[in-house]
Amino acid sequence: MESESSEIVEFFTGKSILITGGTGFVGKTLIEKILRSCPEVVKIYVLIREKRKQCPAVRLQNLLNEPIFQELKKLQPNFNEKVVGISGDATIPKLGICSEDVEVGLPLMVPIVVFRK
Ligand SMILES: NC(=O)c1ccc[n+]([C@@H]2O[C@H](COP(=O)([O-])OP(=O)(O)OC[C@H]3O[C@@H](n4cnc5c(N)ncnc54)[C@H](OP(=O)(O)O)[C@@H]3O)[C@@H](O)[C@H]2O)c1
């Protein structure tokens, strides 16, 4: 993505995105790739549901500690500051995003939504 696809890098510059499926195989690969190749992306909001009694915040921490992010961590030690967990569930209307997250203007800040389930 780095050199030959600079249009993609340009596209993500200054943008924030919301993705679903970020804890899955494809989603975590996508998060890592965007952060590594598009360093000017502002935020990646990740819709995460509670699972096996683990709250979304804990799941996000576990996700960011996975081996796939270790190389990125060396390049961008603070990469985790760009990844924000949003509690929700894709089967619930409005993705189950709580009013608190809506009130801080989440939909207005996020022009790109990658929906993967
Ligand atoms: N893997 C491949 O090689 C491949 C190739 C081509 C296409 N695809 C497609 O890409 C998509 C993702 O595949 P994957 O391999 O990444 O699957 P995966 O590892 O099973 O991940 C699925 C993701 O979707 C999330 N999810 C499922 N139901 C949800 C819900 N109700 N609300 C919020 N999140 C929900 C899961 O969250 P939890 O962690 O909470 O379960 C997880 O993050 C699928 O549609 C698949 O068909 C995959």
TrEMBL record:
Superkingdom, natural source: Eukaryota
Q: To which protein family does this belong?
A: Belongs to the fatty acyl-CoA reductase family.
Pfam families, A to Z: NAD_binding_4
Q: Which UniProt keywords apply?
A: Lipid biosynthesis, Lipid metabolism, NADP, Oxidoreductase
What chemistry does it catalyse, as a reaction equation? a long-chain fatty acyl-CoA + 2 NADPH + 2 H(+) = a long-chain primary fatty alcohol + 2 NADP(+) + CoA
Q: Where is the Thioester reductase (TE) domain?
A: 19-103
What is the purpose of this protein? Answer: Catalyzes the reduction of fatty acyl-CoA to fatty alcohols.
Cellular component aspect of the GO annotation? peroxisome
Alphabetically, the GO molecular function entries are: alcohol-forming long-chain fatty acyl-CoA reductase activity; alcohol-forming very long-chain fatty acyl-CoA reductase activity
Entry's EC annotation: 1.2.1.84
Query: What is the recorded name of this protein?
Result: Fatty acyl-CoA reductase
Source organism per entry reads Allacma fusca
| Entry keyword annotation includes Transport | no
Entry coiled-coil feature ranges: none
Q: Does the keyword Lipid metabolism apply?
A: yes
Instruction: Write out the GO biological process terms.
Output: long-chain fatty-acyl-CoA metabolic process
